[in-house]
Amino acid sequence: MGQFSFHKSERLKKEKQIKELFNKGSSFNLYPLRVLYFPNSASERHQILFSVPSRTFKKAVDRNRLKRRMREAYRLNKSSLLDAQKWMIGLIYTARETTDYSKIETAVVRAIEKLNSIPPSG
RNA sequence: AUCGCAAGCCGUCUUAUCGUCUCGUCUCGAUGCAACUCGAGGUCGGGAAGGAAAGUCCGGGCAGCAUAGAGCAUCGUACUUCCUAACAGGAAGGCCUUGACGUUAACCGUCAGGGACAGAAAGUGCCACAGAAAACAAACUACUCUCGACCGAUUUUUUCGGGCGGAGAAAAGGUGAAAAGGUGAGGUAAGAGCUCACCGCUUUGAUGGUGACAUCAAAGGCACGGUAAACCUUACGAGCUGAAAGGCCAAAUAAGCCCCGAUCUUUGGUGCGCUCUCACCAAGACGCGAGUCUGUCGAGGCGGGUAGGCUGAUUGAUGCUGAUGGCGACAUCAGUACCAGAUAAAUGAUAAGAGCCUGACGGCAACGUUAGGAACAGAACCCGGCUUACAGGCUUGCUUUUUUU
RNA sequence: GGCUCCGUAGUACAAUGGAUAGUAUUUCAGAUUCCGAUUCUGAAGAUACAGGUUCGAUUCCUGUCGGGGCUA
């Protein structure tokens, strides 16, 4: 598996895991994103989900484009995420207007740096 | 050539690097006698959003449930004929209507639009304000005198005027969206379809047309205001629920408790929203009885458990090309193609170039340089329509202005 | 994905098809007060949008736009 690939198994799909992430996970804001994280016990890999609220973006085209940009930024930068702790990560787009790819990429890079600075729990 | 309108069609492309989904193929691994099974992968090959994928406004396919018959209710549709699997869709036609042009006193004709276009002489309701009156036509004002008595003038008779009573008639009355056939002539005390001509209306008949309807003729004499996108009537149609439907596999099962209702025979219940017919079903004990207990059936709640995968699901009323039939929507036949299949949801990111559009500069022009822009919008079981959004381009028709022959 | 309901002043609600769209509150101005509050007087402010039916539409019909609710 190449270092820039992004396979299905790296996505967070099970409803139980998603509920666990939203109920027990910690979070921080990093414009234009909000990052949720929680230690992952079910998988050997980091797993991530991307979300754009339909309340703020009514057209499906806009939602899909933002999710694709977030996913692309994570795919190209995920190799810098340390493997000491396996995380479940949720990236939620909270800004009210669309932003271009470069701004999303810098936000994702800073989010990964912040996750690396968190010490692994027990 | 230019400006606008309508209809139809198209609605960016190429390359490089990294990456996603899917089908095939190959390699490796697992189980194994063997694999058609499962998993991982590849310098492998093919494919991957739209004209509206949107809104969810109609109609079907497909699936499950329900289904004894009749009537009613409810919902929908509404000029005619045809197309279609079906439709509130489409085609052709009829009628009404708006505008322009032609000719004119009009009728009429041509062209371009619009029309939810059954029934108002089956019944009910409503018609504000204004107006005499708003719906069985009657009252009021005004009108007339073949009438009556009275008063005044003249005063012999007669004649004139006035109000009162009576009779006639429904023509006039500033309103209003709408005023009870219209115009003209006759007629009359005054008038009136009272009579006549033309127009309109109604009825009947004939002819043409599949039909909506049209044309012609005769008769009736004016009754019949508008509103059905008010209730309603008539005709026709409709069982309900939607892929979170449904099927298979795996996993997990849980009894129990509470509460309400029904239940034992001249009655009650169930069966389709209601009624009728019809069919089917319906316990024991105690007690005179009311009722109580046990049981059965049904609805709800508490409690406890599972919510993962496969299928449905991408070959179809399918697309393209041609021929034939039809005014046309469309149909038939032949050939050819396989063209997304995701499921916390796949098409992206970066860079370069070509073409397109706009502005600026240079140039007579072709064109060049430079800066910017590229719409509406993302499949979610599948089709046929409708509606709405849309940068830019192409074709056809009509129109405005201008030039040449 | 499917079903369903609703759009009236800044806000919460009214209004048989009949014209000036009403009530409360809010805002503004004035009066009262030494200054405020309260109170009084006056003013401003709306039928989501576009068509149609009707003499006349907030109301009836159709289509857009927006919002809410339900649904394993």
Helix content: 25-40%
> What would CATH call the class?
Alpha Beta
- Specify Rg, calculated over alpha carbons: 14 Å
How many helices does DSSP assign?
3
Main β-sheet description: 4 strands, mixed
Average predicted confidence as pLDDT: 82
Beta-strand percentage range: 15-25%
Which stretches are low in confidence, meaning pLDDT under 50 for 5 or more residues running? none
Topology pattern, helix = H, strand = E: HEEEHEH
Order of strands in the sheet with most strands: 1-2-4-3
Describe the structure.
This protein is an alpha+beta fold. It has helices spanning 15-24, 60-77, 101-116; strands at 26-30, 33-39, 47-51, 87-93. It has a single domain, classed as Ribosomal Protein S5, domain 2 (2-Layer Sandwich). The chain has three helices and four strands; from the N terminus they run H-E-E-E-H-E-H. It has a four-stranded mixed β-sheet with strand order 1-2-4-3, with helices on both faces. The structure holds two RNA strands.
Brief rundown of the structure:
The protein has 122 residues and is an alpha+beta fold. It has a single domain (14-116), classed as Ribosomal Protein S5, domain 2, CATH 3.30.230. It is built from 3 helices and 4 strands, in the order H-E-E-E-H-E-H.
Architecture blueprint of SSEs:
Elements: H1 15-24, E1 26-30, E2 33-39, E3 47-51, H2 60-77, E4 87-93, H3 101-116
Parallel strand pairs: 3-4
Antiparallel strand pairs: 1-2, 2-4
The protein binds 2 RNA strands through residues 1-2, 4-8, 11-15, 18, 49-51, 59-61, 63-65, 68-69, 71-73, 75-76, 101, 105.
